[in-house]
Amino acid sequence: MASVWLVLVLWIFVNALIKVIQASSCAQIHTPASVVLAGSPVSVSCSIEDECPLTKGKDFRVAWKINNHFAPSNLSYQESNRTYGLIIPSLLDTDTFIQCAVCEGENCQIVNGVQVKARYPPPVPQNLSCSLNLTSKRFLCQWDPGQEMADLATKYTLHIFSVMSKKVLSYKYVIPVGKHFHLIPRESYPLLLKVEINVTAVNVLGNATSETLKLIPLETAMFDPPEINGIEADAVGCLNYSWSLGKSQQWLTIAISLELRLKTVNNRQNKELVVPFTKKPRSKLNVCDLFHGTNYSTTMRVKYSSLSKWSEWSEWSDPKIAATVMKAPSGSLDTWLKVDDQNAQLYWKPSENFRANGWNLFYTVESMEPKKILCVTQESHCFFNLIERVEKVYLRATNAAASSNHTEVPVYRNRGLGSVSCSSNVHPQSETSVEIEWGGTPTSLSVTGYVLEWRSLNEMPAAPLSFTLMDKNISSTILTGLRPYQPYEVSIYPKYDKGIGIPCTLVAYSIQKASSVAPVLNTREYSNERNGTIRDGIEMMLFVIPACIGLSLLVFVVFACFGKHERVKMCLWPIIPDPANSSIKRWTTTDSMQGMPPFKEDKEPVLVYLSHFSLLDLDEKEPFKSDYVKENQWSHHIDSCDESHSSFQTCVRCDSELDRDSVPYATVLFDGPYQNHSSCPPPYVRSESTQPLLGVDDPGSPPPYENVSPRGSVSKVQRFTAFPQNPTEENEELWEEFPMLRSLEITDTDHI
Predict the structure, then answer these.
(1) pLDDT digits (tens, 9 = 90+) for 176-223
(2) Chain Cα centroid distance, residue 613
(3) Which of 432, 452, 420 is nearest to 349 (CA)?
(4) What's the CA angle centered on 95, arms 93 and 100, to 5 degrees?
(5) What pTM was estimated for this model as a whole?
(6) Where is this region: Disordered (predicted)?
(7) What does the alpha-carbon distance between residue 577 and residue 609 come to, in Å, rounded to a whole number?
């Protein structure tokens, strides 16, 4: 069966191969161009060979397929006897496969085919730009080619035109395939004349030309940073500069645009000034109207022309520092005087119109009546003593040139006037600024202004005080320049005609944010990385969790104690009987075991040493008169007791203090005739008393419950077993060895 299938498959394969061979030798297909412009018409012809086995002696027709779909019959035609054609009016697909087929009836066999590509002309080059390198003097032009077709080569050509001495110069450069830039040599362009530049892209379907670029090559140059060679202060408030271009560009002598940028150094004004110029290299530059006695840092930059859209500024030069000529400080100082009895604290700072006009300022505080210099300092504050009759002090600033005019500071000794409302609000604005708002003052007082002072609370030693003066119509202000994430103490003082009011003091914080680092549990100090005042949750958790666990254990123990009272009592404080106050009702009852810790398993009773055992028969007429039972009572005969008594008592006590040589361990008392009680032989129950026994190392003590005969032989007796009722010689020997036990002999054991 397998061989039949193999023969069938081979037959089908050979048959198909024969048809393909026959079809391949049947026709020739032709088209004018394999790549055409998209949207243009396409014609294809198919010529059937005379010896084609598919048509020989057969009635056939020719059909066309476009991308495996039969083409409409109106697009095909017959050119000659065995040549057929196809016309596609507009080819839009980028890749189209056209096939020629020979059909007999409905059975068609493809005999040949061709692929036609629809493509576009090259895109227009965009963003053409050119720049001049003044060091190499090469003129670089580059452009954006747009979306190129990988299977269609595109070539570029750069054209440059210029007019020099009424002569038109034209240069053309063919760009290698794949390149989109070109370096134009120096001889192909003028440096200071206008040129026109464009780029043309060409492929087999067409060409495209960019917009024409019109410019002066030098205005596209990027200059190196210039050099400031020297600065002179030859007049009050003026500076003169000498400068030059970079070393590789010093061959240029034309006028160019430049800018000077001046910044004050270590000056409160911190102003920046930019001065434009159009000068030839090595010319002098003069800048005036500057602050007197002020250090200025100056930098410089240049470009070809400030009016050209192609020119670009160079980088700024290295800074140079110079100072203007000094003169006496001008303007006034803002002051804040705090007086407490004769102790005065004076703070000051430059006002908006103050000019230092120099450097290394120092300040002098003095009084006129009496004429006295109170302090001289370079700081912005001064502390001094002030006598009662001084009503004003005077402050002046001095530099190396001269001193300023005096700033008058009135002395206010009345400080008990009204205060502003302490319902002040603090609104953080940023990490370094806060807004302070405060309420009004009593309407009966005339407020002339406010003083707002503040200082950091986290600095050690204490931070210097800062202040600002405000108009009486102002009820809020923004404090700037604060240190991030630090608390500040802020006080608002109202000022009156004759004194200073009571301040309102509050604590302000700038905006805080989340910690940038995790806190360390072992530290108690604040760190700068926390960016604010931290309230960490770990400390609370370390306190709450152990407290909850301890409370839960306490509740559990209390409920366990109440629920298992008896069991807890037996485990913690078991009842131990007192031998001196114990009574034995029945030795076999379980009542005697109450209050004792339970045993996990029953064990054989442990043999116990007894040092002394005594039996007493008491008469009702002779009660105990003392705690000690005398020796003559031990020998009282049991038969003389009253037979009407049916119970007996046991008294256990320790007589170690009275008799050191012989310590009775237990004493049995009978209040009735012992022999009148009949019961079964009692089982042995070991004593639960904690009374100390004789030492085990005593050489005279016998082994547990053993009878030692005078002859050295030992006869063992079971623990407290009843003696046989019939007297024998062996029993008599036992009684002789244990005379004290003889009184315990029971002849009638019906019941006890």
Answers:
(1) 888 999 999 888 888 888 999 999 999 888 899 999 999 999 989 889
(2) 86
(3) 452
(4) 100
(5) 0.47
(6) 679-713
(7) 19
